[in-house]
Design goal:
By secondary structure, the protein is mainly alpha-helical. Among the domains are: 54-89; 138-197, PGBD-like superfamily/PGBD (Muramoyl-pentapeptide Carboxypeptidase, domain 1). The protein has helices at 67-88, 138-149, 163-175, 186-197, and strands at residues 57-60, 63-66. The protein has a two-stranded antiparallel ribbon with strand order 1-2. The longest helix has 22 residues, at 67-88. The protein is rod-shaped and about 150 Å long. The chain starts with 56 loop residues before the first strand and ends with a helix.
């Protein structure tokens, strides 16, 4: 059951339902006093400067500026700040730009063949024949170098007509379809000289 309304009861039963605001009394003695003093009413003071068109004004450095003027000044200062940051390079990233790659200069060298076609080879077959197993000396060493140049290496040229030199002569004779006897004779000498020249 509901209680009857009391002297301070506004006369409404819903929390969200607001009453009509109280009216101000007209006498100058009671100026600012409301008829119903049960609630306080907050009212914003009216603008003092009627020339500002109802805008809020600010006193900055002895000058009175409107809200629009203050906003324009603030946005201009912000734009100038970002322009300075962009000019300094703050927005370019943290890594410096790599210098352009430079390729090394290449030089083209043209080599002409200065060896005439009909010259003797640098390695000559020995003219002394016959050479056989057990022989030694400069002619055997020349034979070993000539066999190596023709692709039938007997090993290091030591001037000793041993088993490795004899084996190299036999391989050469088989390749050139000569008699396989391991002796460096006139036919083997001619075939070796032809192989070195051609």
């Amino acid at each position: 059951m509901e209680a009857p309304p009391g002297p301070n009861d506004p006369g409404y039963d819903d929390w969200f339902d607001e009453p009509e605001p109280p009216t101000e009394t007209q006498s100058s003695a009671n100026r600012g006093v409301y008829e119903d003093t049960a609630e306080e009413v907050w009212v914003l003071p009216e603008e003092e400067d009627s020339g500002s068109g109802g805008q809020r004004t600010f006193d900055i450095g002895g000058r009175t500026l409107t809200m629009t003027q203050v906003a324009i000044i603030a946005l201009s200062a912000l734009a100038l700040f970002f322009a300075i940051l962009a000019a300094v390079g703050v927005f370019n990233g943290s890594t410096a730009a790599a210098p352009p790659a430079t390729l090394p200069k290449t030089h083209t060298v043209t080599v002409q063949n200065t060896v005439p076609a009909n010259t003797l080879p640098t390695v000559q077959a020995p003219t002394k024949t016959p050479l056989k197993s057990g022989d030694t000396g400069a002619a055997v060493k020349q034979l070993q170098k000539a066999l190596a140049a023709a692709g039938f290496s007997p090993g290091a040229p030591d001037g000793d007509y041993g088993p490795s030199t004899m084996n190299a002569v036999e391989r050469f004779q088989i390749a050139k379809k000569l008699g396989e006897d391991g002796i460096y004779g006139p036919a083997t000498a001619a075939a070796l000289q032809k192989a070195l020249s051609g």
